Amino acid sequence: MKIGIYFCNCGSSIADKISVEAVIEASRTFPDQPYVTTVDFICSEVGQAQFVASLTTEQPDRVVVAACSPRDHEATFRRCLAQGGMNPYLLQMVNIREQIAWVIEEPLRATEKAISALRGAVYRVRLQEPLEKKQLEASMAVLVIGAGPAGMKAALSLAEAGRSVVLVERSPFIGGLPVLFDELFPTLECAPCMLEPLMGELLHGDYAEKIELLTLAELWRVTGYYGNFTAIIKKKPRHVDLHECIGCGECVEACPAKTGNCFNNNASERKAVDFAFTGVLPNVPFLMEEVCLRSVGEDCRACKDACPLGEGVIDLAEAEVTLERNIGSIIIATGAGLYEASQVTGMGMGALPDVYDALQFERLLSSTGPTGGKITTSSGSVPARVAIIHCVGSLDKDHCSYCSGICCQYAFKFNHAISTKYPETIITHYYRELIAPGKEAHFLLHGALNRQNSIFTRYARIGDIAVTRHGAGYLEVSLQGVTTAADMVILCPALVPAQGTDKLAALLDVTCDSAGFYGELHSRMDASRSTLKGISLAGACQEPMDIQKAIIEGMAAVGHTLAGLQPGRLIDIDPVTAEVESKRCAGCHLCSSVCPYHAISFDGEQHISQVNGLLCRGCGTCVTACPAGAITGNHFSNAQILAELEGLLK
Amino acid sequence: MSEKPKLAVYWGASCGGCEIALLDLHEKLLDLDAAMDFVFCPCLLDSKKKDLEAFSDGSIAVTLFNGALRTEENVEMAHLLRRKSKLLVAFGSCATGGGVPALANFTSREALLTTIYRDNPSVDNPQGIIPQYSTAVAEGMLLLTPLLARVKHLAREVAVDYFVPGCPPEPHQIWRVIETLLSGELPSAGSTIGCGELTVCDECQRTKEEKRITAFRRNYEFYPEPTVCLLEQGLLCMGIATRSGCGAPCTTANMPCTGCYGAPDGEDDQGAKMVAALGSVMDIGDTAHLSEDAIAEKVAAFLESIPDYAGQFYKYTLARSLLGGRAGR
Question: Which residues pair with A39 in a beta bridge?
Answer without folding.
Answer: A8
